[in-house]
Amino acid sequence: QVHLVESGGGLVQAGGSLRLSCAASGRTPSKYTLTWFRQAPGLEREFVAASRWIGGITYYQYYQDSVKGRFNISRDNAKNTLYLQMNSLKPEDTAVYYCAAASFWSGSYYEVGEYDYWGQGTQVTVSS
């Protein structure tokens, strides 16, 4: 079992920055796929960014096109924490952000159904 808790959300003006954190407890997920999703009101939950374990201490990152160059996903295995640094925020980034964990890598990493564990979410609101 992996328990995930997000934090760091809030209200920010367009162009601003936020850093989200996702603290993991339970089984140490250093080899897990850890991913950020978001869900805006009335819309389906969508993929934002993923961190894939390759081997050793090597990880690859994957991003939704709309956040490339603005968001950065990283992880600190010593702290069992996943981060999402969000820069140049836009009103369309407003959503509840969730972290998710899977014990394996899937080619469908962008799909909600591929993940076993979810956090409760943290609200990000970007004002124009």
In short:
This protein has 128 residues and is an all-beta fold. The chain has strands at residues 2-7, 10-13, 18-26, 33-39, 46-55, 58-63, 71-76, 81-86, 95-102, 117-118, 122-127.
Which features does this protein show?
single chain, 128 residues, mainly beta, seven-stranded mixed sheet, four-stranded antiparallel sheet
How would you characterize the overall build of this protein?
With 128 residues, the protein is mainly beta. It is built from no helices and 11 strands. The protein has strands at 2-7, 10-13, 18-26, 33-39, 46-55, 58-63, 71-76, 81-86, 95-102, 117-118, 122-127. Strands 2, 4, 5, 6, 9, 10 and 11 form a 7-stranded mixed beta sheet that branches. A 4-stranded antiparallel beta sheet has the order 1-3-8-7, with no helix packed on it. β5 and β6 form a beta hairpin. The mean pLDDT is 94.
Task: Give average pLDDT, whole number.
Answer: 94
Distance between the termini: 40 Å
- Principal-axes geometry comes out as globular
Q: How do the helices and strands follow one another from N- to C-terminus?
A: EEEEEEEEEEE
